[in-house]
């Protein structure tokens, strides 16, 4: 058993909004971790780190190689540009350093498959992809309830993610390199599907469609700002996804799991708090402003479980095989969205003849 007083030295790669949140959480909210170092090539992010982290004794690097080769580093959180995720992750694993990587680990499904076949099992035991919704208190309670059999056998999952409309121009440039709405965002709902319906779920068929309501520039790179996807699994289970990037009231994320003897609903009305105002205008209640506010507690739980698993010598909370399955479904849904074709799989969950086409 690990010494409860031992602390894990953690570094953060990339100091955008996500990286900053992770760094501050490690620094202030994870008792068994020490924020050992951070890294970013961006001058404004380095300035933030020098003002907010360096006074706390955190090592600040502009070069990733300098950071990863500094003795004493036990684990890193990869929140860099998506194109660099796999490079930063592999560099860490080769040095025996654990990794919590923001999704996607890579946009190349074949590379993820190669990691799965690592004969030393280094990748499988040292890498965790960050699917933060699994660590949300409400979703964890729902999973406990399902495992107790309270709704019988789970059969259908309906999950929705809807983000507030952003016309600033930032979103379009981000979306252009994101891999598409299913790969970038619906993948969180796909991961929840594996959690609730079973990690061993094998797809039978899937199809997707979508439209552009506001961000018409997205037609330039074959993406949409509203999409629907359906996945049918062998064994009689179905998942339905809806995602929007054009809501006006705030961040609207909800999930329902329908079983043979009932259903569980999570966050069907996205309340920011429990205050209601009733007047001549009707009944009003504030919505959740964004995904960071919705999952701020889950980000802490995710890090805490990641750190504790390493220190206590246990398996990481999320398996790399689950991330691979989720990516396979996300890429296939994105392809169906673009081509308009239904995609089918055999009973082993393998894609039928034509094979998965790369859209990236």
Automatic annotation (TrEMBL):
<dbReference type="InterPro" id="IPR036291">
    <property type="entry name" value="NAD(P)-bd_dom_sf"/>
</dbReference>
<dbReference type="GO" id="GO:0005737">
    <property type="term" value="C:cytoplasm"/>
</dbReference>
<dbReference type="GO" id="GO:0006740">
    <property type="term" value="P:NADPH regeneration"/>
</dbReference>
<dbReference type="InterPro" id="IPR055170">
    <property type="entry name" value="GFO_IDH_MocA-like_dom"/>
</dbReference>
<dbReference type="InterPro" id="IPR000683">
    <property type="entry name" value="Gfo/Idh/MocA-like_OxRdtase_N"/>
</dbReference>
<keyword id="KW-0560">Oxidoreductase</keyword>
<dbReference type="GO" id="GO:0016491">
    <property type="term" value="F:oxidoreductase activity"/>
</dbReference>
<protein>
    <recommendedName>
        <fullName>Gfo/Idh/MocA-like oxidoreductase N-terminal domain-containing protein</fullName>
    </recommendedName>
</protein>
<dbReference type="GO" id="GO:0000166">
    <property type="term" value="F:nucleotide binding"/>
</dbReference>
<dbReference type="Pfam" id="PF22725">
    <property type="entry name" value="GFO_IDH_MocA_C3"/>
</dbReference>
<feature type="domain" description="Gfo/Idh/MocA-like oxidoreductase N-terminal">
    <location>
        <begin position="8"/>
        <end position="130"/>
    </location>
</feature>
<comment type="similarity">
    <text>Belongs to the Gfo/Idh/MocA family.</text>
</comment>
<feature type="domain" description="GFO/IDH/MocA-like oxidoreductase">
    <location>
        <begin position="139"/>
        <end position="264"/>
    </location>
</feature>
<dbReference type="Pfam" id="PF01408">
    <property type="entry name" value="GFO_IDH_MocA"/>
</dbReference>
């Amino acid at each position: 058993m690990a010494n409860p007083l031992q602390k894990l030295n953690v570094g953060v790669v990339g100091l955008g909004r996500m990286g900053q949140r992770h760094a501050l959480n490690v620094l202030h909210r994870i008792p068994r971790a020490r924020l050992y170092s951070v890294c970013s090539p961006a001058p404004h992010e380095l300035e933030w780190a020098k003002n907010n982290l360096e006074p706390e004794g955190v090592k600040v690097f502009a070069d990733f190689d300098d950071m990863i080769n500094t003795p004493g580093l036990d684990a890193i959180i990869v929140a860099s540009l998506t194109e660099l995720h796999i490079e930063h992750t592999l560099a860490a694993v080769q040095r025996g350093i654990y990794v919590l990587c923001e999704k996607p680990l890579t946009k190349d499904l074949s590379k993820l498959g190669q990691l799965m076949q690592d004969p030393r099992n280094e990748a499988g035991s040292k890498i965790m992809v960050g699917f933060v919704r699994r660590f949300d208190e409400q979703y964890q309670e729902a999973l406990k309830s399902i495992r107790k059999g309270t709704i019988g056998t789970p059969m259908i999952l309906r999950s929705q993610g809807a983000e507030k409309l952003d016309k600033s121009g930032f979103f379009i440039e981000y979306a252009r390199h994101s891999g598409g709405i299913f790969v970038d965002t619906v993948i969180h709902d796909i991961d929840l599907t594996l959690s609730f319906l079973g990690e061993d779920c094998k797809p039978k068929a899937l199809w997707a469609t979508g439209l552009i309501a506001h961000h018409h520039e997205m037609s330039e790179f074959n993406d949409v700002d509203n999409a629907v996807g359906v996945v049918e699994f062998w064994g009689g289970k179905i998942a339905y996804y809806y995602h929007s990037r054009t809501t006006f009231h705030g961040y609207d994320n909800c999930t329902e799991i329908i079983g043979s003897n009932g259903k569980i609903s999570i966050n069907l009305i996205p309340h920011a708090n429990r205050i209601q105002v009733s007047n001549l205008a009707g009944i009003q209640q504030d919505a959740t402003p964004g995904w960071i506010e919705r999952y701020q507690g889950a980000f802490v739980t995710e890090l805490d479980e990641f750190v504790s698993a390493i220190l206590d010598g246990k398996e990481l909370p999320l398996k790399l095989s689950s991330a691979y399955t989720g990516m396979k479904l996300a890429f296939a849904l994105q392809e169906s969205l673009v081509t308009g074709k239904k995609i089918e799989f055999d009973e082993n969950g393998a894609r039928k003849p034509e094979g998965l086409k790369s859209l990236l």
